[in-house]
Amino acid sequence: MNSRAGRYSIYIKPLFGLIDLFLLNSIVAFFQTNIDQKLLFSFYISIFWIVLSIKNKFYDIKRFSRVVQVLASIIRQFLIFALILYAFIGFFKQSNISRLEMGKYFLSILVLVTFFKFLFLYFLSKYRGVFGGNIRKVVIIGNNKKTEQLIKFFSEKPESGYRFQKKFCVKEEDFEWDRCFDYIIDNDIDEVYCSVAELTNNQLRDIVNFTENNLKILKFIPDNKDIFTKKLVFNYYGYIPILSFREIPLDDSINKFAKRSFDIILATIVLVGILSWLTPLIALLIQLESRGPVFFKQKRNGLDYREFYCFKYRSMKPSTSHNQATKGDARVTRVGKFIRRTSIDELPQFLNVLKGDMSVVGPRPHMVKHNEEFAQRVDKFMVRHFVKPGITGLAQVSGFRGEIETNLDIVNRVKYDIFYVENWSLLLDIKIIILTVINTIKGEEKAY
């Protein structure tokens, strides 16, 4: 039985943590924070940093992790750490501490931790790609499009630290499991990748038993159908293994708190900085052209399919019809055409955000009757309601906003919405907001 070698990550992660703790405790000396109990402060931030890092899996960075994932991890870590940092003042009654200097200290830590994190990740990737260190040798069992894509990834990304050794085709006549297993042992292979689609249950059992008995890491390449396309999550209930179809990031209390805090801050800025003066102006223009209410409210389905009233500036003539606006719709006023084209009519939904019915970013809420219709004809449509609806969303910035003209429009919208639900991050929200602003300035074909 061979032991696993070259697991340098067992040292890398603690090293990252020790460097960050050193920065946390040393940089504070450069600021006039007026902290009286320096030892207590050092103990306080160190303990909370360690606990927060474990909870957020801050140092659980894989060799295949993307830059956007690392940035999202940093943002999540420091949003909570900022609250912990300022809580020290009130909890230990340190009224002499300078809030401004503490803020400077926080920003310095944020910049330095981010800088050193990416610096070490860069050197680590160079160490793998150029010097061939921290390498994991891999074999692939299976011969299909996905295995070829994986081989290409290993070949084109030497900095990821994987070295492809050999591919075994189980469907070939001369294939023998013993020969495959001997190769893995003789060449000290670290990881084995199997295509699920090409293996029988008995073969899967054999490869699992072999890898476990020889301390090899086994990973599966999913097929293109049924359960293996799901984002499965494995947990234990006592000693009973349980598989879940998906893990929703916003079910995590820290992620939920971070998103809600971001929503409240952004909604407050928009309401005070923009709507406070824009609303009277829009109200005047609406009233000059068409008598009636300034705001339009309509029932929509939100989180857990609960109904709420969604607010907009009224862009149509008062009517009993509640059908979705179409291109060239006679109900849309001249002012309405402008505010719809520029998406200004959606701005009152920041009130919905502040109330908690909506988020700034999320799947766009549909009318109740449309939800009932789409739920019948679009598979997995209801997954959208696992999170709060948004003023803008991934589907909207990906070209699927506005009127549903064909069945493909709603199918693609749901596809992007489900991706957002399963892969949420604060950085993704920020990216979607930036793209929304850019699209609004450029103008969109379906903004009518």
Which range does the strand content fall in? 5-15%
Number of strands: 10
Average pLDDT works out at 83
SS class: alpha/beta
Oligomer: single chain
Distance between the termini: 68 Å
Largest sheet: 4 strands, parallel
Strand order of the largest sheet: 2-1-3-4
Order of helices and strands: HHHHEHEHEHEEEHEEHHEHEHHH
The low-confidence parts are 1-7, 225-229
Gross morphology: flat
Helical amount: 40-55%
Total of domains: 3
Number of helices: 14
Radius of gyration: 27 Å
GO cellular component, one term: membrane
Enzyme class: transferase
Protein name: Undecaprenyl-phosphate glucose phosphotransferase
Subcellular location: Membrane
Notes on the structure:
Belongs to the bacterial sugar transferase family. One of its GO terms (cellular component) is membrane. GO terms for molecular function: undecaprenyl-phosphate glucose phosphotransferase activity. By secondary structure, this protein is an alpha/beta fold. The chain has helices spanning 9-27, 38-56, 67-91, 99-129, 145-156, 177-186, 201-213, 253-289, 334-341, 349-355, 368-377, 394-397, 407-422, 426-442; strands spanning 136-141, 162-168, 191-195, 217-221, 233-237, 240-244, 295-301, 307-313, 359-361, 390-392. Helix 1 (9-27) packs antiparallel against helix 4 (99-129), helix 3 runs antiparallel to helix 4 and helix 8 (253-289) packs antiparallel against helix 10 (349-355). The longest helix is centred in the middle third of the chain and has 37 residues, at 253-289. It is flat and about 85 Å long.
